[in-house]
Amino acid sequence: MDKLSFTIYLTTMCNMKCSYCYEKEYKVKSMTLKTADKVIEFICKKVEEKKSEMINIKFHGGEPLLEVDLIRHIMNQIKKRKETNNIFIKYSLTTNGTIFSDEILDVLKEFDLISVSIDGNEEVHNKYRVFKDSTGTFQVVRENIMRMIDKGLKVYARMTVTKDTCGQIGDGIKYLIDLGVRHIDVEINIKNDEWYDDEINVFLYNIKKIFKIVRKFNLLGDDIDIPILTRAKTKPINSLCSGGTSSFTITPEGGIYPCIVAINNPEFFLGQVGKNINNDVVDKIHEIGSYRNEECEGCSRYDYCKATRCKIINKVYTGYYRKPYKIFCLYENIDVKICRLYYNII
Questions:
Q1: pTM score of the predicted model
Q2: Residue range(s) occupied by CATH 3.20.20.70 in the chain
């Protein structure tokens, strides 16, 4: 029995203009109610087909909370469908954190995870994450995170790190812990593909600032979860891509793709909701997933690295299935170094 995962892009519209946004080249489109109903049918059909007992549904954008009525509609309709009776459904959401009110609290209470993008303290956050008029979003996001936590919502922080902000990562994490956030995902900006040893060393030096803080909280029973600290040790061995079989990403127009990275790439277009999946494309994805990266052979992280697992990312960013996208080599390099430091010090 497969666990099914669906990422639903409700809209490409956003109320911000982050300078490092990888979605800003998309045309502004929002999902219609008619398409949403086809998405619901698609999900229920897959549940029956796979005999699933668990499904993950993630709402994405743009800014998905600009379409909160559509979120409410999809969740309500799925709850009513007989195909999803006795199915465990986990809802998650990625938001920029600028939209929150008591009117949408009833929707957000149904979510198992709300990932809010906040890059640290005010100076760092406002360097990249601004409204359309270029004013900083930090104060609005900060207040909304505090309100969400106060309302009992499970808030995760998502920090995007660039070469320009890597020297402030430790202070940023400490700030979020003091704010009340207990899960912090640290991710390097995917478009920064050139980091040098000096920048990596600055990053490592600054993230070390929070090692003892995290340990202190955890010893007191107030768990702080920062995956980057232990990710290299706990990461499972790579499995083949599940895109097109148990994992699907759906665009506002109802286009189906294996993952977020593949969106709008005709080579990986699986079909349209309301129609059949193109199994030839699915078979191709599985075939290329077994390709070996010759230049990565001999690397101790070969069986764990995203650049050796995900051939779609390689093709989209380098033009070749077997050529690793260097930012993921950097990810693994940093993850291993952080993990070693963490366990050696703590």
A1: 0.93
A2: 4-234
Token readout for 19 is 């300078």
State residue 96 phi and psi, 5-degree precision.
-80, -5
Distances (CA, A) of 240 to 46, 101, 247, 289: 20, 41, 12, 6
User: pLDDT over 70 for what percent of the chain?
Assistant: 98
Pairing of strands 54-60, 255-257: unpaired
Alpha helices in 54-168 (DSSP H): 68-80, 102-108, 122-128, 138-150
Residue type, 8: I
Q: What is the DSSP string of 202-224?
A: HHHHHHGGGHHHHHHHHHTT---
SS3 57: strand
Q: Are 252 and 30 in contact (CB under 8 A)?
A: yes
Instruction: List pLDDT tens digits, range 118-134.
Output: 999 999 999 999 999 99
CATH superfamily of 4-234: Aldolase class I (3.20.20.70)
Residue type, 94: T
C-alpha dihedral sign at 277, 281, 282, 283: positive
Q: Which amino acid is at 13?
A: M
CA atoms in the 13 A half-sphere facing the CB of 200: 16
With 70 as the cut, is the pLDDT of residue 23 above it? no
Average pLDDT score over the chain: 93
Predicted confidence (pLDDT) per residue in 60-112, tens digit? 999 999 999 999 999 999 999 988 888 899 999 999 999 999 989 999 999 99
Q: Is the dihedral of CA 5, 151, 225, 207 positive or negative?
A: positive
* φ/ψ bin of 254: left (φ > 0), alpha (ψ from -120 to 50), beta (otherwise): left
Helix crossing, 311-318 with 279-289: angle to 10°? 90
Q: Tell me if 113 sits within 8 A of 59, measured CB to CB.
A: no
